[in-house]
Amino acid sequence: MAEGDGTRTDLVGAAVGRDQFRLVRVWVAEQDLNRLVRGLVRRRVNGTVVNLYEWESSDVLLTWRINRLPISSPTSDLFVLNMETSNLTLISANFTSKSLLSANNGFCIQSPPLLRQRRRKIPLIKASVAAVEKKVALIRIGTRGSPLALAQAYETRDKLMASSSELAEEGAIEIVVIKTTGDKILSQPLADIGGKGLFTKEIDEALLNSEIDIAVHSMKDVPTYLPEKTILPCNLPREDVRDAFISLNATSLADLPAGSIVGTASLRRKSQLLHRYPSLSVLENFRGNVQTRLKKLNDGVVEATLLALAGLKRLNMTEHVSSILPIDDMLPAVAQGAIGIACRSDDEKMANYISKLNHEETRLAVACERAFLLTLDGSCRTPIAGYACRDEDGNCLFRGLVASPDGTKVLETSRKGLYAYEDMILMGKDAGEELLSRAGPGFFDS
Questions:
Q1: Which family does it belong to (predicted)?
Q2: What's the structural domain count of the chain?
């Protein structure tokens, strides 16, 4: 939408009436993605929550949903969205022209019929705005570009700003979007292209090359090893670790008719699901970000899907949840719901900044679970689940699980001990060694 001079603050688009909400589509130049998401992810427009609903980063067409938009409901309204203030301004009601118009701020407005033509380049109109010298950021945060990853990066930014007056100044923190191999290759299962490290490798490389200062990761994507010269000393407070069941026609897995297809790319979810409900079918390689998978569900590709509740909460999208699976029915992935922040091992300044954000209870639980995973040498090819928490007595309760991919065999174990680092590491390792011994050779081949 803009030519990338970095000075524009407004985007122009069309809102189309759609029952209780509007779907809004806007073409955006890739260099302006960062600023767009800053204005939309987990922010409010005129007091209403805005969710990214669809994400297509090829040209880029963005679609987001605005619930209960506080504007009248003509067929199509034109508006300007100011990304700095998140205010929505109505320009023209009942707009139906198919021509391109120029707003007084120099932006290009496009009507809904043209907006539906994907991958069509829009003529650009240069804004008459003087260039502004960019302030050098004190912290550059590296992150993937998905809506969830960006929500987590902005959560980190907000906590950093609250922790230090110098970081609260405008321009003190910059968010750098890094496209990983795992984001680029969606047509193959993760295991076939190298495992979960594909969501962190490019970010780690940018960290080591001093292109960013800290990296924000979903901890369940982080391999059990860290690259040399990096440390991960900080975990933010953990979100809800449970999985959510989402369907347009059923309220729970038990309500699905035999033969129903459930979409999930997770072998952990697949094996536990088929163990309890062998009459169901699983569509594997059901990959993509939250918005993509929900779109596939709405398009009828599957009858249901399972998603991490933590991600839906961070995106303010829990209205899609049909029910929440109890931990007894679906043990979560190792480190599910946890955010980790890494920096270079020789960067004492960054380590001090992020240490202020660390939630020690979460850090210890994640360490216990990752010790379990490391012992099992777990990867995306092996269905493994593990969860450590503090019980009512203040002790650590750890539960671990391994399963055959088809769900016919499931082995579980548990440990209880002091909620202290050394004790919890030993619990995770011991539980892993037990399950390795019980599983025996060839267990994961079925």
A1: Belongs to the HMBS family.
A2: 4
Tens digits of per-residue pLDDT, 198-233? Answer: 779 899 999 999 999 999 999 998 999 899 999 999
Domain span including residue 266: 243-324
Return the biggest CA–CA distance within the chain.
71
Does residue 81 belong to any structural domain of this protein?
yes
Between CA 140 and CA 244 the distance in angstroms is 33
* Residue 148 to residue 312: CA distance in whole angstroms: 8
Whether residue 230 sits in one domain with residue 147: yes
Q: Are residues 348 and 369 located together in one domain of the fold?
A: no
The answer to whether position 209 is within a domain reads yes
Task: Report the distance separating Cα 434 and Cα 212, nearest Å.
Answer: 41
Q: Which residue has 């010298």 as its token pair?
A: 133
pLDDT tens string 53-72: 333 333 333 444 443 333 33
Q: Which residues contact 192 (CB under 8 A, 6 or more apart)?
A: none
Cα 7 to Cα 212: distance, rounded to the nearest angstrom: 22
Assign residue 228 the CATH number of its domain. 3.40.190.10
Strand 323-324 with 21-27, pairing: unpaired
- Cα–Cα distance, 183 to 148 (Å, whole number): 13
Q: What share of the chain is helix, strand, coil (3-state, %, to 5)?
A: 30, 25, 45
What per-residue string of b and e applies to 363-399 under the rule 16 or more CB within 10 Å gives b? bbbbbbbbbbbbbbebbbebbbbbbbbeeeeeebbbb
User: Given 77, 183, 213, 221, which residue is catalytic?
Assistant: 221
Give the Cβ contact number of residue 341 at 10 Å. Answer: 28
Residue 100 and residue 56 share a domain: yes
CB atoms within 10 A of CB 83: 18
User: What percentage of the chain has pLDDT greater than the value 70?
Assistant: 65
Tell the residue number behind the tokens 């309220």, with chain if given: 251
Amino acid making up residue 18 = R
- Provide the whole-model pTM: 0.72
The question of whether 221 is a catalytic residue gets the answer yes
- The closest alpha carbon to 177, from 200, 150, 151, 201, belongs to 150
Q: Is residue 170 part of a domain?
A: yes
